[in-house]
Amino acid sequence: MIERKFISKGIRNAELDTYFQKELERVDYSHCEIQRTPLNTRIIIYAGRPGMVIGRGGKKIQDMTYTIEKDFKIEKPQLEVKALENADLNARVISKQIAEALEKGMKHKRIVSIYLKRIMRAGALGVEIDIAGKISGERSRTEKFQEGYIKKSGFPAEDLMSKAMQVAVLKAGTIGVSVKIMKDVPAIMKVEKNISTMKTAMDAAKKKAEEKKEVEELAEETEEKSTDDKTKDDTKDTKIDAKEKKTPVKKKETVAKKEEKAEAKPKVAKRQETAADKKETKTK
Fold first, then answer.
1. Domains and CATH numbers, the chain
2. Rounded distance between C-alpha atoms, residue 38 and residue 155, angstroms
3. Does the model's pTM come out above 0.85?
4. In the prediction, which pLDDT does 149 show?
């Protein structure tokens, strides 16, 4: 009995979702949440254009509440409309827009490339768009377009991915559009990413410290070289000063010797003259 209740509730929710899809076809309908309370049943509708869901003076939402209460037998339904935070990260909205563009006659590759860039720019981790059917020619085929990181199986593929499928009706036949958007990273990958960022930060800090040490060592070497050069220059200057001091003494000595020689020359000449006179007297 309990199982039947759960199954009946699930069927009712699915029927309600299909009803909203048909009624809110042009307002970028995403999904609905049903919250049952003892007083009433609260139904939250998420759409890209909430103003069009409400209608003029709330007429459209009143008509929907009446049909839900009558056809789906939900007691006291209370409808609320909320805008989507980011419509480009919602697979149902994107698949619907791609299907509408294909029905208008646009090329599938051009549409897919535009939406891939748009989804990745919106902050998605990865996206995959599959288009199957008679795309061009008589034979049907499937084309897959992927960008970023996509998980194919496991818990992330079920809970962290937005999936949707729409059908585009063309003259050649029907074309199926499947969209898968990976919104968030698994917790394990986040931990690994944090560890890798910490490692890179530590390596960068270590490298910076080594570079600083090398710069300090170079500065010390340059200072030592400059001090050695200064000492050498000082010794050279002292030697040059000593030479300059010595050179005038030598000059003075040479001048004194020349004067002595000049004084000695006339004495020698006089002696020679006296010697010559003596020889002449002897000869006489």
1. 2-84 (3.30.300.20), 89-185 (3.30.1140.32)
2. 34
3. no
4. 87
